[in-house]
Amino acid sequence: MTTLSDPPKSDFRIGMLLSDTRYRSYTFQFIALMAIILSVSYLVSNLLANLDRLGQDLSYEFLGAPAGYDINQQPIPYNSQDTHLRATVVGAMNTLIVAFLACVTATIFGVIAGVLRLSNNWIISKLMSVYVEIFRNIPVLIWLIIIFTITANVFAPIAEFRIPRDGSDPARTLIFGVMAFTNQGVFVPRLTFDAGGMFVFWTFIASIIGIFVYKSYVKKHLFATGKELPFWLPALAILVVPTLVMYLVLGRPVGVQLPEMGRFRFEGGLQLRTSFIALWFALSIYTGAFIAENVRAGILAISKGQTEAAAALGIRPGRIMSLVVLPQALRVIIPPLISQYLNITKNSSLAIAVGYMDLTGTLGGITLNQTGRAIECVLLLMLFYLTISLLISLFMNWYNNSVKLKER
Amino acid sequence: STLDEVKARGTLNCGVTTGVPGFAEPDANGVWQGFDVAVCRAVAAAVLGDGNAVTFVPTTGKTRFTALASGEIDLLARNTTWTFSRDTDLKFEFVGVNYYDGQGFMVPKDLGVSSATELDGATVCIQTGTTTELNLADFFRSNNISYEPVPIETGSEAVQQYLAGACDVYTTDRSALAAQRANFETPDAHVLLPDVVSKEPLGPLVRHGDNEWGDIARWTLNALITAEELGVTSANLDAESGNPEVNRLLGREGDLGAMIGLDAEWAKRALAVGGNYGEIFASNIGSETPIGLARGLNAQWKDGGLLYSPPFR
Amino acid sequence: MTDTAVNTSQMQISDEVAISIQNMNKWYGTFHVLRDIDLTVQRGERIVICGPSGSGKSTLIRCINALEEHQQGSISVDGTLLSSDLKNIDKIRSEVGMCFQHFNLFPHLTILENCTLAPIWVRKTPKKEAEETAMYFLEKVKIPDQANKYPGQLSGGQQQRVAIARSLCMRPRIMLFDEPTSALDPEMIKEVLDTMIQLAEEGMTMLCVTHEMGFARQVANRVIFMDAGQIVEQNAPEPFFTNPQNERTQLFLSQILGH
Amino acid sequence: MTDTAVNTSQMQISDEVAISIQNMNKWYGTFHVLRDIDLTVQRGERIVICGPSGSGKSTLIRCINALEEHQQGSISVDGTLLSSDLKNIDKIRSEVGMCFQHFNLFPHLTILENCTLAPIWVRKTPKKEAEETAMYFLEKVKIPDQANKYPGQLSGGQQQRVAIARSLCMRPRIMLFDEPTSALDPEMIKEVLDTMIQLAEEGMTMLCVTHEMGFARQVANRVIFMDAGQIVEQNAPEPFFTNPQNERTQLFLSQILGH
Amino acid sequence: MAQDHSTAFVRTQEIPPAPPPPGETGAVHWIKTNLISSVPNAIATAVGIYVVYWLLSGLIPWIVNGTWVTNNIRECREVLAGSGGGCFSVLTERYAQMLFGFEYPSEFYWRPSLAFALLFFAVPPALFPMYLPRWMLIATGLYPFVAFWLIWGGTILTPIGALAGVMVGYYAFTKLDKYGFAAALGGGVVGAWVVWQAFGMIAGGMPGFIALEAVESRNMGGFMLNMILGVVCVSLSIPLGIVLALGRQSSMPLIKIVCVVFIEFVRGVPLITLLFVANVVLAYFFPPDSNIDLILRVIIMITMFSAAYIAEVIRGGLAALPTGQYEAADSLGLNYAQAMRLIILPQALKISIPGIVNVAVGLFKDTTLVSVISMFDLVGMIRGPILSSTDWAGVYWETWAFACILFFVVCFGISKYSQWLEGQLRTDRH
Ligand SMILES: Nc1ncnc2c1ncn2[C@@H]1O[C@H](COP(=O)(O)OP(=O)(O)OP(=O)(O)O)[C@@H](O)[C@H]1O
Ligand SMILES: Nc1ncnc2c1ncn2[C@@H]1O[C@H](COP(=O)(O)OP(=O)(O)OP(=O)(O)O)[C@@H](O)[C@H]1O
Ligand SMILES: NC(=O)CC[C@H](N)C(=O)O
Ligand SMILES: [Mg+2]
Ligand SMILES: [Mg+2]
């Protein structure tokens, strides 16, 4: 019948730029574009004028120059003769380390607090409310500093662990002979891997995967035969036995290195610096309060009817949790949870307040300062966080789409 | 130009530390006092005629250069070391040296350390964004010993951490170490190690590019030094003098002020605020004060020190 | 409705006791919800419970299923005494199926998964067998073709039928219904009631809270009227509707039959 | 309804053209919603549009009001050609009032404010005058006493009447209705239809999408049947209902008159 | 037959409700169900009680034995003599510094205090629109100008001029909105700008006209600085957020892209990096001789930051409106600007209030980050001048507890309000 053809063209008058809906939006966009170009070029011209006045230029060459400063926490080897770029990478890794760990612990805190807040024990639920309200309503920076202050002033001075010069016994020794809480950080044992150590390590990883495999086997078996196999005991065995066997077979290639007092501090072992602990803990406990709220809201969002229906079918409370409530609650909880992870990552930039050498401390701090390359450094810094945010948001969109409940 | 801006504004924006006793610190009434502050006041007096026409902007080791580069401050008098890269790459102009210093280490006495080379494995508090941070890395590397750096933003926080025992050693310019130790509850429990690991010529600086303004700052500082050399003190500013250089300095002969865009009495006003270099030194950080620094390198050249002002001619 | 099926209220019922409630009392805090409830249900009996809102109908049948605790008196189901003993509760719940007003299907599971969840995890039926049973009951409630959809994709009436099928998959000997049709649009009520009638015809013991008087007439052996936590009157449907004894029953009937 | 008022379909209509649509086509993306629509409406004519769901009825009347753009053909209202020229659009919108299925009252404004908003801001009528006009029309739709309530406090029927009054306050010469009664409970439909009949009696040009066939019989000069984006049949109500020509019309009428 | 069985009976009289059996009500019952209903529950109770005891046993002596009168930490320690009390004298001595910073002239403390007190008259009309008459919104509208004048001082002509500019701009906007949104916006901005220029000249000429002594921005500090940043940035970011949200909904691709990029960019980076921008980068983008001070640059960046978050909240509000509202406005002949101002925004903003309040609380907490770029807000004051002073070095708990209490009271209050408001909106008559 009819075919698609262009609408009749009316003659163009200049007034139509404003009065005609077809051209109007072009006019506005053009004006907007001009305004944007004008303001951007104004800013850029100011920038150039200022750079010119100060005799500076924009260049990233400084990234190749030796950094000259030391970083105390080095996930990859680094010394002061390495480049600023490497210092930047070290900082970025430190950011990711603390952000990742904080995400894990914040989730743990949050889930515990959120669930306990719903507990029928009055004291516990009230205590959790107090925790949530107090931590949510006081700036994270203050918590960070308070926790930093606690570690620096409440933990025992490391001097008390030192061997006095007269050779007498130190005032304090390692707790259980393995770890020490001091005002310079927490010292814990570290695993050392000999030649075959990696095999043991990978065996251990494989065992963890094995537990999940076993779990799905248990389910499959139940589905197939209606017999439920025991889970916890075999899981424990899977976790321990292969690793142990590997360890013994390979001739004990994994050792434990205990912290040992040197001249000034513990050597060997693993040192968790106060700045790291403060940042990690502050981010976890602060964000945990928010996550607790999300968890609580998620569980409350599952109507009582769901639990009752499951109970009426004879399902036991534990199973009701795992089969009915959690799968639904997670859909509600996970999106806000991911944005909390995003917040943790962004808030980890507060590291600078306690001297933890994350990206903000290296690139945005010392490098910026020693080189004076403010614009370049800040730009790079923003780019890094932006990339992480976008990745996390992409993941979140994907997740949201994949769990959307089917509706009519 | 900066001079016009400052005159139009009526106050001098001067960057100082966030607080180092004797060098720059607000007193109980909130009035800034100190050795670096005196330089600011002298410049303000020379330019504006009023030593109190200064807005002090506290800066940390990190923020100081951006504050100066962005024009937030006109002059930075903040125990800043004159280095090659700051002068050239960061595009600043050091107008002189008001304190010849070197980097040192402070440790608690009962740590039983007598030299910096014994510090292998120690935890060291440093201020980030300073030369001391870089010197420290160099020192330990060249001596092939390890250390654990604890980077900290401001001097006062570094002191807090040090006193809390969160670091074993605190390192910065020896002058600042001495000044801060003087404020300790028990100064005697801490010692400065004899090692001086760097040269730290500290002086005021301005932005590159405005040489007139740089000249004013440079010659105000020189005026303070020359005045001491010539025996001009805040007490005898009005006394007749037979020395032609004194008369030139105080504007009684010639017109040096006009050459830098100021009036004849500029130097006299600058000297009237806190006196000459020696007076400023003595009243803020000298041996009579709690800080108790000796003149040492900072004596006049005639007395075997390094202070040597070009002539006023 | 009455014309579509045989009137089941005349069907034979056994004299085995399915549920026996003796002198049961329940309080919420200080509020006395159920007072001195005495009720014996024979196997195969179909009982309709009605009464004004808040009279404790839901509470009563929820007590039978141990969804609520009672504080005094005894309830026993199929000879098992309902106590706080977990084993007894489990036993009773596996005997008794329940349908709720708001269906309470599990929205994250397909219809088939909804129906097989409990058989697999509680009864430990192999999955395959459980699915076959589920399909059998889904066919019975006439929606086998929806098995792989999610509850959100079905209409209210279909959801309620799934809920019934889900209960049946546990092969209960007694079914409790709590106003199964009151959240439904009028055109869907019929399909659910038809399903329930079919169940009744097969001889299932049923306790049903409902205000569908047509259903009561057609299906019930006995109608129980509750008010203020008490069983005020109980009788076979005919005498109950035509000749209520208690004045509150009369009032109530005049209201609900009025419109 | 037919008994409450005169049958207006016999009223005189002028031969001035109010709306003329020629060869109009519209696509949503590649979906051809309206095909070759030709329609001329005389001033004073009352047209009822009916047709199955998705046939493009709403789209058609939304095009007349420039709520949707058409891609081919021309629409002119009162001699003003509907183009993308803003001035024309404004002109047409001030000539044409529209009522929606869901009333679309502004919930944050009182009834009176709803009615005076456009006159004040578009027509620049002084507030006082606008309020007088508003009260006049509110009286006409018989709810002057609700003037200071908020829409949320009124029943659906009242809201729809307010929506009509709101349109009338702009003193349109043409009124468009898009299923004005289909979101209403049965008991409210009548009050709205009465209002519309009253409007019709006063000689308003009306285009009304509705399935109220009683209304169509009583009021319309012409009934238009649309299907799949086309005008399939148009005729005066009597012949349309009693003797539909097109087979799709027959089918449709048998369905909607069936229940 | 069905009637055969014997149980049928009919109650003839009502039995009165019996009192619940003992152990079903009262304190004992409460304890039984809430504290010791099972063994794990009882253990949890024990743990909970122990935690509470532990907290209180530290807290109570600290507060009860605390001293409020000494002059420095050494005196304080002598007075306390190991009693476990707190040195609250740091608060009595330094509270003014913590509240106002150390450079705000002490004789003018009454000015910010008054401004703060006035906040309680200015805010309720905006937050409780359903309970207070509309005209009280005038107080809200006037407040920023009054507060500005009180805190910064200077001639009264400055705030009057600013107010006049805003009013002229708004007037121009309403008059021009029949020509379209862009024209109205442009006209409003130009109108306001002209008035500001004019008043700028007048005020420049008469700096002493009804003047309070001027205080410079850099002298603002302490909790006052947090309040200023919070209040100023949130109020400024609401209009900006509205514009961004509308832009993001726009059908014009260019405008939409610009808004989306801006919003996502700002939301993707930590506030600290934006503060770095304010601190070290922004000055590069201003003309060489303009001397925009740090607090202003910080306000610019924080405003942009919160505007992006508020834009997202408002976008949610806009999305929640049915399209019918837009269509009804269109069909009545309202143009875009009118439809937005009269129909869409009033409803969208109302829905968005709880979200905006949440953003505001978060932002207020985040104002403490300015201490990282060496501004002396409450946190900066404590970390810097107070804890590093010889007198009070080492009194962490007291000072930080003070800071915590200040923030907690404000933030908790606001978030409780927001919860209340959410409930209110849910049960609204619509
Ligand atoms: N969890 C509870 N706590 C306190 N009171 C309750 C609780 N559940 C129900 N009630 C009260 O117990 C009484 C009986 O409730 P029930 O739900 O059994 O009534 P019902 O007869 O089913 O009414 P409806 O027809 O409205 O469903 C009501 O007054 C109700 O308010
Ligand atoms: N914005 C749109 N984008 C794409 N397709 C649309 C849009 N609006 C409507 N349609 C489609 O256009 C067709 C006609 O829609 P229209 O609303 O005009 O039908 P209708 O006759 O009014 O139906 P109903 O009786 O259900 O209101 C429908 O198939 C609809 O799906
Ligand atoms: N301690 C300081 O803040 C200054 C350290 C050193 N003099 C420098 O300029 O970098
Ligand atoms: Mg009920
Ligand atoms: Mg339609």
TrEMBL record, chain A:
Its main location: membrane. Residues 92-396 form the ABC transmembrane type-1 domain. GO terms for biological process: amino acid transport. Pfam families: BPD_transp_1 (PF00528). Keywords: Amino-acid transport, Cell membrane, Membrane, Transmembrane, Transmembrane helix, Transport. One of its GO terms (cellular component) is ATP-binding cassette (ABC) transporter complex. It comes from the Bacteria. The chain crosses the membrane at residues 26-49, 96-118, 138-161, 173-193, 199-217, 229-250, 270-292, 378-399. The gene is glnM_1. InterPro entries: AA_ABC_transptr_permease_3TM, ArtM/GltK/GlnP/TcyL/YhdX-like, MetI-like, MetI-like_sf. It is found in: Cell inner membrane; Cell membrane. PROSITE patterns: ABC_TM1. Belongs to the binding-protein-dependent transport system permease family. HisMQ subfamily. It is a multi-pass membrane protein. This is Putative glutamine ABC transporter permease protein GlnM. SUPFAM superfamilies: MetI-like (SSF161098).
TrEMBL record, chains C, D:
Keywords: ATP-binding, Nucleotide-binding, Transport. Residues 19-253 form the ABC transporter domain. PROSITE patterns: ABC_TRANSPORTER_1, ABC_TRANSPORTER_2. It holds the Pfam family ABC_tran. It comes from the Bacteria. GO terms for molecular function: ABC-type amino acid transporter activity; ATP binding; ATP hydrolysis activity. CDD domains: ABC_HisP_GlnQ (cd03262). SMART domains: AAA. The keyword Transmembrane helix does not apply. Belongs to the ABC transporter superfamily. This is Glutamine transport ATP-binding protein GlnQ.
Automatic annotation (TrEMBL), chain E:
The keyword Transmembrane applies. GO terms for biological process: amino acid transport. CDD domains: TM_PBP2 (cd06261). It comes from the Bacteria. It is a multi-pass membrane protein. Signal peptide: none annotated. One of its GO terms (molecular function) is transmembrane transporter activity. Residues 223-418 form the ABC transmembrane type-1 domain. Belongs to the binding-protein-dependent transport system permease family. HisMQ subfamily. This is Inner membrane amino-acid ABC transporter permease protein YhdY. The lineage of its organism: Bacteria, Pseudomonadati, Pseudomonadota, Alphaproteobacteria, Rhodobacterales.
